[in-house]
Amino acid sequence: MKLKEQINFIFEKYNFFPRKSLSQNFLIDPKILSRLIEEINLKGQDLVLEIGAGTGILTSELASRARKVWAVEIDEKLCEILKEELAESSNLEIICADVTKLCLEKFFPQGKKIKVVGNLPYHIASWLMLELARKYWVDHMVFTIQREVAEKITASPGSKKRGMLTVLLTYYADVEKVIDIPPQAFYPSPKIGSTVVKIRPNKKLLARNERIFMQTVRAAFASRRKTLLNALTRGLGMSRENTSRILIKAKIPENKRAEQLKLEDFIRLSNLIEEGKVASSSC
Ligand code: SAH
To answer: Collapsing DSSP states into helix, strand and coil, what is residue 20?
Structure first.
């Protein structure tokens, strides 16, 4: 049976109607399914977390290749379908919950790396990638996300598509585009194209104070059309003189815009801002 027929069969069998509000677009393209499996690169001993398991098309492939699969799904009806349709997969644990509210690490054996995969619910994709990129237990992630978000997280310095998410995510992880997917690869088809990305946590550069690093990135992009001098002065509540002094010290021209900076520039800048804060609070 073709994947689309398989999904329609399940819809009818369980009287299920997909919900747009939960980003319910189910994969029906076998080539993309194989590509996802190939990219997650499972070995028999691997532990896998799937986010948004849906009707279980990807889930069953994962369960047949890995040692253990935890599949998170928010929709209770889909959880019932998964439990019934995949009853024979004894290495599968279905977690019927909102992934944004879960403390995921409590499910996994301590000290083990987990591979994470999913055709992510689009409305939570950005948040989720950033959260997971910071987790020590993540080995690597293979996600299908909106093309627009994929272009954003892979945008180079100077690109208008670059944003706060680009800088923060690449601080924690290496991000790589795998393949673009047309809307027709899903059923029902979304309005927009998607892209498979691979994200591997790998913090190479360290900011002295991560909170200040994040505040700096946020402030710079919050007024992205403004010069850095104006954006940082406003966003960090510093005096113009102080911001100007820090930009000179960081060797960053004050009329540059946030999207033009490399990750290294933001780190250097936030280290100097932190130094400035410590200095001014100590006198
Ligand atoms: N992996 C499946 C389904 C992808 S659609 C496939 O490829 O066919 C996205 C899935 O994520 C839907 O099943 C939806 O119900 C689920 N979902 C949406 N929001 C969620 C959340 N906050 N937590 C867990 N699952 C969620």
So the answer is: helix
Report helix, strand or coil for 248.
helix
DSSP letter at 97? S
What does pTM read for this prediction? Answer: 0.94
What atom of ligand 1 comes closest to residue 25's alpha carbon? Answer: 5
Q: What average pLDDT values come out for the chain (283 residues) when binned by 10 residues? A: 93 96 96 96 96 97 98 98 97 98 95 96 94 96 97 97 97 97 96 97 92 96 94 95 95 96 97 77 43
**Rg, C-alpha atoms of the chain:** 22
Assess contact for 33 and 58: CB atoms under 8 A. Answer: yes
Ligand 1 pocket member 10 (CB < 6 A): no
**Closest C-alpha residue for ligand 1 atom 11:** 52
In short, whether 61's Cβ falls inside 6 Å of ligand 1 is no
